[in-house]
From TrEMBL:
GO terms for biological process: 'de novo' NAD+ biosynthetic process from L-tryptophan; L-tryptophan catabolic process to kynurenine. Heme b binds at residue 387. Belongs to the indoleamine 2,3-dioxygenase family. Pfam families: IDO. It comes from the Eukaryota. One of its GO terms (molecular function) is heme binding. The keyword Metal-binding applies. This is Indoleamine 2,3-dioxygenase. The lineage of its organism: Eukaryota, Fungi, Dikarya, Ascomycota, Pezizomycotina. Keywords: Heme, Iron, Metal-binding. Coiled coil: none annotated. The keyword Heme applies.
Length: 428
């Protein structure tokens, strides 16, 4: 049997080069250059105010509900003093960071972290008003980046890493040398949670590369080496299996009760306030398009990572309505270049899958490339099953344990039922 296919009908257009969308061959969706760990001195007021928050290990208002009065009062006063500091913080201009992507990303990260500290330490009996000293620069920076003006996966994962040993690049594997820079809670669990994401992004870069090569070869259309595509797919399966292994290390690195009770409350979005308060953004009218921008204020989730949807898109994995609506909801929180990359792949209409289908029709489903493709699809399914285990351990079980949490538990269960039960991943 010939290992070459001479002319595969391409679905039109060519696979856009990932590099044009800030997708790096080695780092995937992580920026190839280490994110800034501090802004220049002109913005020291922001950095120092954030330091003052992280060093004090505040408790979120949701956590204080369970504390007795004296302890609660101490915590509330501590946080109030910090919020007063933020109220008095000067309104710093962002003019001199414009055009500097790393500076803007760092600014976005620290401003959004301060917004979370500010909002979630505000007692439930008070309204939440994010002061002008945060609102105005945050909207400005978000506008420059074309990014949601809220903390996102892009902030706490993609643009929040450093090397443990900056000189160890040639000797220490990146996955063992990478760590997150900032956490909201100072817990090893939160750092561990971000580490899982970082390691998955790094490993995922290998799958993006393999699938990109496959799609490129198929689209080029002449004398396609079916054996090579088979090898790429087999290697991709291995990478996806390793992604699953990394995801499952969450169980070693993150304690479910710490995640649910200590970390999660800080990551709640402005549209999900536990006490149904509407967040007010002081000074929003001073920034153009602020109303439109401030519609993107949902809780961050690793579901905002472009990695898994990009693998789906390359493999032509079907989207049902609930998956599509989830993706439409989260893609506005992705770095816009990544989102454009993902969209360009989704529009390419299943290059790899269509190619494999043609081979299946011509040579049967036992053809090695068909077997390899189906194994890759199965590996994606198995990765999603593992994710469901994580969701159950970290959200469903703790939310059911929590007094009065039945409503939230039920909401999440139905959301997840929608996301997972109808997931169609048909083999060829
Ligand atoms: C403690 C760890 C994690 C928890 C508790 C968790 C929780 C969740 C929840 C509740 C959802 C449902 C949708 C929503 O956010 O509203 C979701 C979706 C999703 N999460 Fe996670 N997640 C975790 C880690 C990860 C990691 C590390 C990744 C990979 C980078 C990931 C990728 C996804 C994806 C792609 C979706 C969309 C559903 C799908 O396409 O299957 N999650 N996650």
């Amino acid at each position: 049997m010939s290992s070459q296919v001479s002319s595969h009908k391409s679905t039109g257009g060519g696979t856009a080069a990932p590099q044009g969308f800030q997708v790096d061959q080695r780092m995937g969706f992580l920026p190839p250059q280490m994110p800034l760990s501090r802004l220049p001195i002109a913005w020291e007021a922001w950095e120092a105010t954030l330091d003052a928050a992280t060093s004090q290990r505040f408790k979120a208002a949701e956590q204080l509900v369970a504390l007795d009065s004296p302890q609660k009062l101490v915590e509330e006063e501590k946080a109030l003093a910090w919020r007063k500091l933020v109220d008095k913080m000067p309104l710093l201009s962002i003019d001199n960071i414009k055009g500097c992507e790393r500076g803007l990303r760092r600014a976005h990260l620290i401003l959004t972290f301060m917004v979370q500290f500010y909002a979630h330490t505000t007692p439930p009996t008070e309204s939440i008003t994010i002061p002008r000293s945060l609102t105005v620069p945050l909207l400005g920076v978000s506008c420059e980046l074309n990014h949601a003006p809220f903390v996102t996966y892009s902030d706490h994962n993609l643009h929040n890493w450093s090397l443990k040993d900056p000189h160890g690049q040639d000797t220490i594997p990146m996955r063992d040398n990478i760590q997150s820079q900032l956490t909201l809670t100072g817990t090893p669990d939160e750092a561990g949670m971000y580490l899982v994401g970082l390691r998955m992004e790094l490993k995922g870069a290998e799958a993006l590369e393999l699938l990109g090569l496959s799609a490129h070869e198929i689209e080029a259309g002449n004398n396609i080496e079916v054996g090579r595509i088979t090898t790429y797919l087999t290697q991709t399966t291995k990478v996806i299996e390793e992604l699953k292994g990394i995801l499952m290390t969450t169980k070693e690195l993150v304690r479910p009760d710490i995640f649910f009770n200590d970390i999660r409350p800080w990551l709640v979005g402005a549209d999900a306030d536990k006490w149904n308060r509407k967040w007010v953004w002081e000074g929003e009218d001073e920034v153009e398009d602020s109303e439109q921008m401030l519609t993107k204020v949902s809780s961050p989730t690793a579901g905002q990572s472009p990695l898994i949807p990009t693998l789906d898109a390359y493999l032509g994995i079907e989207e049902d309505d609930s998956k599509r609506s989830f993706l439409d909801r989260v893609r506005v929180y992705m770095d816009h270049q990544h989102e454009e990359y993902l969209q360009s792949l989704r529009l390419r209409k299943k290059i790899i899958r269509s190619f494999v289908q043609v081979i299946a029709e011509e040579r049967g489903t036992n053809a090695p490339v068909v077997v390899a493709y189906n194994a890759t699809v199965q590996a994606m399914k198995s990765l999603r099953d593992a994710h469901l285990v994580i969701v159950t351990l970290y959200i469903i079980i703790p939310s059911r344990k929590m007094a009065k949490a039945s409503e939230m538990g039920a909401k999440l269960s139905s959301l997840l039922d929608g996301l997972y039960s109808e997931t169609s991943m048909p083999e060829v």
